Structures are given as structure tokens and as C-alpha cells.
Amino acid sequence: MKDALVPVLVVIGLLLLAGLTLFLVRRPRRGALPPAEEQRPGIERGEKIPPSVITAPAPEKPAPEKAPEKAAPGKPAVVPAPAPPAPGETAPPVEVAPPKPAEPEIETPEPTAGRLVRLRARLSRSQNVFGKGLLGLLSRDHLDDDAWDEVEESLISADVGVQATTEIVAKLRERTRVLGTRTSADLRALLTEELTEALDPKLDRSLHTGVVDGKPSVILVVGVNGAGKTTSCGKIARVLVADGHTVVLGAADTFRAAAAEQLATWASRVGAQVVRGPEGGDPAAVAFDAVKKGIDAGVDTVLIDTAGRLQNKVGLMDELGKIKRVVEKHGPVSETLLVLDATAGQNGLSQARVFTEVADVTGVVLTKLDGTAKGGIVIAVQRALGIPVKLVGLGEGPDDLAPFDPQQFVSALLGDE
Length: 417
Ligand SMILES: Nc1nc2c(ncn2[C@@H]2O[C@H](COP(=O)(O)OP(=O)(O)OP(=O)(O)O)[C@@H](O)[C@H]2O)c(=O)[nH]1
Fold this sequence. Notes:
By secondary structure, the protein is an alpha/beta fold. The protein has 13 helices and nine strands. It has helices spanning about 1-25, 115-120, 125-140, 145-155, 160-180, 185-200, 230-240, 255-270, 285-295, 315-325, 345-360, 375-385, 405-415; strands at about 55, 215-225, 245-250, 275, 300-305, 335-340, 365, 390-395, 400-405. β6, α11 and β7 (about 365) form a beta-alpha-beta unit. α7 (about 230-240) packs parallel to α8 and α11 (about 345-360) runs parallel beside α12 (about 375-385). The chain starts with a helix and ends with a helix.
């Protein structure tokens, strides 16, 4: 009996050995590369991708399925251990699910109120000219013609512009004469009033957002190359979300390869959707699709980034007109924001004038004010264009874009008391 069992045990042993060998051979190697080309559902291999592809869809809740335990970031997901094989069966290969790409965390942008106050230190370069420089000059015991010339020079070198400077100096001269005694508090108050007045505090600086006639408002963002349009679009989206709006972004800068990607990243951070097209595609088509997406998704604002263009390039300027016309098939453009680089100073002004002629600009976003000592450019821009500065860029951080407020700005320029 015992002897009869020996061959049976040997056979069972051999079978188990064969099963184990098979399992080891078939087990996938760690780090194996994925197939060379992944096919997108609904798109044949080699087929052209449709003109506009929606990315970063609004985070829809996935249907609750018996999901494997969530993996720690960067680690493979843990899958339940399979049931042990029945005797004689080959053990199935153990599969380890590849780590899921971490979903971008949706951020809560900082409230917009008080941003300019928070960022006032970023104006330190301009503070040297206005606060230390001008207040120092005005507090001299004797304000003769030479001293007033110096005041004038300071304002012009801070890009305030000749006409505005002449007016400001004339008023300061008159008021200091009438005032007689001049304490530093008096002078600060005088300068504050005159600079604030030069910034025309009564202008409407609100962004034209919200649903109009059942459709989202449309904001076009335009400007020359490198002024900070794409970055500002991302930051404006955060401003809008912080103020309780819902946004779709349109990546109509199909010229610069990285712009759409950049915009998609900004959008995903606040859970907004982006409509983008193929590189070199028709920007007007993307803008049209973005507004359509905005209507379908029921958001209240559609923000469209456009390619940087030089004011002397007729074709590019015509393209801007086309984008506007095509978008207006859905309804009027509510706002056209011109992005201007503050460090370009007076040069930027001549470029800006051409944009205002072509694009019916309703507001200015003045970027990179943190990088210049010429904070007076805000006064010059408004004077030259007759258009309010609505937002100012004061750094590269996501919430370093502040709604512009003349009183807060002047107080920041003059520095701490
Ligand atoms: N310091 C500072 N940098 C800024 C500010 N706004 C934008 N930038 C930087 O300016 C650079 C250009 O910004 P983009 O948004 O790419 O400019 P763009 O106008 O879209 O560029 P094009 O698509 O080439 O026309 C980036 O490095 C931004 O981080 C700002 O307010 N302060």
C-alpha cells in the first residue's frame, strides 16, 4: 500500500513544480514598458484628432465600484489576494495594478479682497521713488524752482508721463504754497490725494462676468508676445473662482506649443475645463468651441487666451478680429483685456494704442509691476488709453494678481508711514 502511494506522491510533486515554474516564467517583469502607441477611444490609428479637444473635464464623481484600496501616492495600488488554486489547477499570475497618476488637487485660491495690501511689499522698487524720493524732496525746508524741477524729474523717471507730471506738480506747488507749514503728515496727505486723483478713482474696474441673456460672459485676453497673457489667464481664472464664478478656459494661443498645456495646468488646479485645439490650428475655431462648451456646461464666464502678436503684424491683428467675429456668433464679447508688461514702460504704450484701435479693449492687466521702479506707468497707461487698469501682476505666484484699487496702490507706493 505504502509502495503504491510513492509514485502518486511523485506525480503530485512534479505537477506542483511544473505549476510553480510556469507561474515564475509568466509573471510580468517589473518596469516593463507600456505598448508603443496607446489608442484613444473613438479615434482610429493615424486618424486626425478633431479640431478641439476638451481636457481637464470637470471632476465628475466616478460610479462607486468595488475599488481596490487607494494607493499611497507613487506606490502601486494594493489588490486583494486571489483565492488559492484548487488542487491540480495552475496558480493564476498575480497582477499588481500600476500606480494611478495622482489626480491634481483642486486648490482654493486666495480671496481677492486685500490682495493688493498683501502684495504691497512687491512694490518696493517703486516705493523708493515715490515714498522715499518724492516725500523726501517735498519735505525740504525751502522748495525753490530747482527742488520742483527735481520733483518733476522723479515723476517722469517713474513713467508717470509728461502731461500727468505737469498737472500733478502744478497742483502740489499751489497746495504747498497755500498750506504754509508742511509737516510730513501734511505732505503725505497731499501726495496721496494728487496721485490718487491722477489714477481716476471713479473708473469702473469690475470685470464683466456672469451670465448675460442665459449665456456666459466672454472675456478675451490679448497683448504682445511675452507680456504675460497665458499666466494672467490662469491667474484671472483663480480670481474668478475665488469670487464664486464658474469658468471655462479657451486655449486659442495655438501658435506657442506650450501655451495650451500651461493653461490646462492652471485650469486643473482650480477644477476648470479647458478647450484646446491642435498646435497651429485655427484659434477662432477654438474660441468658438470654448464659448459653446461654456454654454453647454452652464458656467458663467469663458476666458479666452490668444497668441501674442506684434501690433505691426497686419495678419495677426486681422486674426484677432476674426476670433472676435466668430465668438460673437454666440453673443457679444463682454470684455477684452489687454495685458501689458509694466517693465516695457512708455514703449508698451505705443503698442497698446494699436490694440485699442483694433480690439475694443475694455480693461488693462498690467503685469510685472514687481519688476520695475516705474510704478507711475499705471497713471500713464490710463491717461494714454483712457481705459482703466483692472488688475495688476505683482509676482509669479498663482495668487499674485490683484484687483487694482487706486487708494490702496498709492498707499503702497508711498510705503509705510
Ligand atoms: N515677475 C512677474 N513675472 C510675471 C508676471 N506675470 C507674468 N510673468 C512672467 O512672464 C513670463 C511670460 O508669461 P507668459 O504668460 O508665458 O506670456 P505670454 O504673453 O502668454 O507669452 P506669449 O504666448 O509668448 O505671447 C512668465 O515667465 C511669467 O511667469 C508678474 O506679474 N510678475
